[in-house]
Structure prediction request, 160 residues.
Amino acid sequence: MIERTDVIVVGGGQAGLAAGYYLAQARIPFLILDADTRVGESWRRRWDSLELFTPARYSALPELAFPGDPEHYPGKDAVADYLEHYACAFELPIRHDSRVVSLERCQGGYRVATESGDQRRSRAVFLGMMNQYSRGSSLIYWVKLDAAYIVDQVRHTRAA
Ligand SMILES: Cc1cc2nc3c(=O)[nH]c(=O)nc-3n(C[C@H](O)[C@H](O)[C@H](O)COP(=O)(O)OP(=O)(O)OC[C@H]3O[C@@H](n4cnc5c(N)ncnc54)[C@H](O)[C@@H]3O)c2cc1C
Prediction:
């Protein structure tokens, strides 16, 4: 059976989690599909000495401050832990081990398939993989714009 939801968010990194926050605020049903086993894993795998080049005060996602001194430069594990805590704090629905391998338009929205063969349909799709598909220098600004666009799109298709 093909599962349905209003919005599928591909990727549960910074962009996907922030989009999830805005979608939850708008009370739009959504599901985040992430290829990895755990939130923040891509950061945990990076080299040990990695520190962000932006201080904590500019590294937070919406509505949850990065812990510690706002002027410190968080290490990669602190980033991973913060992201995991963020997903937990806002109870964001994430399906792990779900690498999206195809995305097709279909009537009323999109059909998304994962590597394991699961198929889902949604009215809209948010691609949260900006490391792969860079769109601009201000991540959260773009996420907010995209999430607002998707909220409008979903409301429009519901009304039709
Ligand atoms: C080494 C490094 C240091 C950085 N330092 C800073 C910094 O100090 N300050 C700053 O502001 N920015 C920094 N950036 C940039 C910042 O990390 C990115 O802008 C941000 O991570 C992009 O977030 P994202 O959610 O789009 O992508 P990502 O964080 O890459 O997350 C993408 C998520 O999508 C998942 N995914 C990928 N492909 C699929 C698929 N096909 N199906 C399902 N899930 C998938 C991955 O598992 C991952 O969880 C740094 C980037 C790097 C690489």
About this structure: DSSP finds four helices and six strands in the chain. The pocket of flavin-adenine dinucleotide is lined by residues 10-16, 33-36, 42, 46, 50, 52-54, 59, 99-100, 128-131, 139 (CB under 6 Å).
